[in-house]
Amino acid sequence: MSLLISRRSLIVGAPALLAGCDQVARNSAARAILFKGEDMHRGIQRALMDRDALAREFRPDQRSPIFRSNGTRDPGTPEYETLAAGKFADWRLNVGGLVARPLALALTDLAHLPNRAQITRHDCVEGWSAIAKWQGPTLGSVLKAAGLRDAARYIVFTCADLYGGRPYYESIDLIDAFHPQTILAWALNDRMLPIANGAPCRLRVERQLGYKHAKYLMRVDAVASLAGIGKGHGGYWEDNVDYDWYAGI
């Protein structure tokens, strides 16, 4: 069992080493500590952990006084600035790929779907954790509405923020996509998401580390393989900085 807890203990307890996602990306020693032996870790963890188990949920009085922003704090593109200026009334989350019924969901659509509210802890590779309340429809319910095709194996998220001139992207498999705590969050602590925290909508995949929680969502696509996504490892950090694709905790 001790093999399964080393990463969370390291991340939460090592703020001096891990000052931010970009700093971790540049620090080869930090990467080696975090991700050395990840293939073995992932295999053991996925074999022994109950991936349907719920992440711990907390009481309202246990929420952190501040929920920091991680990664991008404002996409800053002309397109995003226009959407933000209109309070995201014209924003649409496009759901496509291997689905029978492609969707274009406005914020009002997300709010009118059956929503889930949960108070959970965010564990970031930057070396900090925070507890907050998130609200939004489950990703599984959105995928069911779109009619997921049998060939689909992964869900890919494309975002409004740019890294190296290209949209940020992440992915999860169907086990995490249909986990009851995996939601498309549009509210943080009973208020609309602030820009720094991913407005107008971000992924919450509560059984994984913070870099998997894609912000500024623009597209959700069902795919059969990750081979054609970026460099084929399933996400920006996975492709460019050797982060592990499965970041389960």
TrEMBL record:
Residues 88-222 form the Oxidoreductase molybdopterin-binding domain. InterPro entries: OxRdtase_Mopterin-bd_dom, OxRdtase_Mopterin-bd_sf. It comes from the Bacteria. Pfam families: Oxidored_molyb (PF00174). Coiled coil: none annotated. PANTHER family: BLL0505 PROTEIN, PROTEIN-METHIONINE-SULFOXIDE REDUCTASE. This is Molybdopterin-dependent oxidoreductase. It comes from Sphingomonas lycopersici.
